[in-house]
C-alpha cells in the first residue's frame, strides 16, 4: 500500500500502529535514502560472520524485511528472531515470512526486557533513535554483554551534525529527497511534527562513543548518506 499517513492533519505523536504498519514498507523505501543499499550491505557483511545454527536478533524488526532477506541469502540454517513492540508490525512480518518460506521466531515485547543471550549477530535498523538516551546506552551495554565472542552488532540510524549550519543543510537535502519520492511539503511537515521528541538522533561520533563505552573496541561506518548512517561493531 502507498504511504498516505501524513496527508492529513496529525492528532498524535508518531507511533507504529496499524495504520503505519499497513504502509510501512512503502514508507521505508520512500523515506530512508538508499534503504535497499543499506539493507544489502547489512546482509553482505553479516554473512561473513555467520555459521550454522547461529542466533540472530533483529531489534525493532517491523515487517521483518531484513531478516527475510538474510534468510533468503544465507545457505546455512540460522536461528532468526525478530523483536518488536508493535503487534500490528509482527502480524505483517509473520505473513511475509511465511510467504517467502523463511523460518523466523517473532517476539512481541520491549527490547529492554527480552533475553538476547548467546547472540551471534544483532541487527538494529533505525530503532535506537526512538529510545531515550539513558535507556539507549543501557541497551547498547545489554547488546554487548549478550553477544558471544566475535559477535557482531550492525545498526543504522538517522544522525545529526554538530555544526548547526551543516545540520540545517542536511535536513534541507533530506526534505528535497522526500519530495522526489512524491511526498508533499504538507506531508513532510506533518511527519516532522509527529516525530518531534519521539525520534532523538545522535551525531555519528556520539553513536560511536556510545558503542565503545559499552565495551566494543571498534565501530566502523559502513554507509552514510547526508544524515543517515549504517555502523558495524565486533565484540573481540
Describe the structure.
This protein is of the alpha/beta class and 236 residues long. It has one domain (18-234): 3-Layer(aba) Sandwich (Rossmann fold). 43% of the residues lie in helices and 22% in strands. It contains eight helices and eight strands. It has helices spanning 18-31, 35-47, 65-73, 87-100, 133-146, 164-180, 185-195, 204-213; strands spanning 55-59, 79-84, 104-108, 119-125, 147-160, 202-203, 219-225, 228-234. Strand 7 and strand 8 (228-234) form a beta hairpin. Helix 2 packs across helix 3 (65-73). The longest helix has 17 residues, at 164-180. It is globular, with a radius of gyration of 17 Å.
Structural class: alpha/beta
Note poorly predicted spans.
Answer: none
Name the helicity range: 40-55%
| Named CATH architecture | 3-Layer(aba) Sandwich
CATH class identity? Alpha Beta
Structural domain count? 1
Helix tally equals 8
> Could you say which overall geometry the principal axes of the C-alpha atoms support?
globular
Strand content: 15-25%
CATH fold group: Rossmann fold
Distance between the termini: 43 Å
Encode the helix/strand succession as letters: HHEHEHEEHEHHEHEE
Mean pLDDT: 90
What is this entry, summarized?
Strand 1 (55-59), helix 3 (65-73) and strand 2 form a beta-alpha-beta unit.
Describe the secondary structure blueprint for this structure:
Layout: H1 18-31, H2 35-47, E1 55-59, H3 65-73, E2 79-84, H4 87-100, E3 104-108, E4 119-125, H5 133-146, E5 147-160, H6 164-180, H7 185-195, E6 202-203, H8 204-213, E7 219-225, E8 228-234
Parallel strand pairs: 1-2, 1-4, 2-3, 4-5, 5-6
Antiparallel strand pairs: 5-8, 7-8
Helix pairs in contact: 2-3
Amino acid at each position: 500500500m502507498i504511504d498516505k499517513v501524513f496527508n492529513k492533519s496529525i492528532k498524535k505523536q508518531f507511533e507504529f500502529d496499524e495504520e503505519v504498519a499497513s504502509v510501512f514498507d512503502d514508507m521505508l523505501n520512500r523515506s530512508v535514502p538508499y534503504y535497499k543499499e543499506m539493507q544489502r550491505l547489512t546482509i553482505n557483511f553479516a554473512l561473513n560472520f555467520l555459521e550454522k545454527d547461529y542466533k540472530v536478533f533483529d531489534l525493532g524488526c517491523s515487517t521483518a524485511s531484513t531478516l527475510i532477506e538474510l534468510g533468503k541469502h544465507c545457505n546455512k540454517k540460522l536461528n532468526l528472531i525478530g523483536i518488536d513492540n508493535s503487534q500490528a508490525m509482527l502480524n505483517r512480518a509473520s505473513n511475509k515470512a511465511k510467504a517467502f518460506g523463511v523460518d523466523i521466531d517473532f517476539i512481541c515485547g520491549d527490547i529492554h526486557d527480552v533475553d538476547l543471550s548467546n547472540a551471534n549477530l544483532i541487527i538494529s535498523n533505525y530503532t535506537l533513535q526512538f529510545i531515550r538516551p539513558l535507556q539507549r546506552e543501557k541497551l547498547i551495554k545489554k547488546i554487548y554483554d549478550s553477544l558471544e565472542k566475535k559477535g557482531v552488532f550492525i545498526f543504522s540510524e538517522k544522525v545529526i551534525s554538530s555544526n548547526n549550519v551543516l545540520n540545517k543543510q542536511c535536513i534541507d537535502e533530506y526534505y528535497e529527497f522526500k519530495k522526489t519520492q512524491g511526498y508533499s511539503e504538507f506531508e513532510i511537515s506533518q511527519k516532522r511534527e509527529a516525530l518531534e521528541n519521539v525520534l532523538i538522533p545522535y551525531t555519528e561520533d556520539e553513536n560511536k562513543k556510545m558503542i565503545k563505552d559499552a565495551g566494543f573496541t571498534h565501530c566502523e561506518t559502513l554507509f552514510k548518506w547526508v544524515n543517515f548512517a549504517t555502523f558495524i561493531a565486533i565484540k573481540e
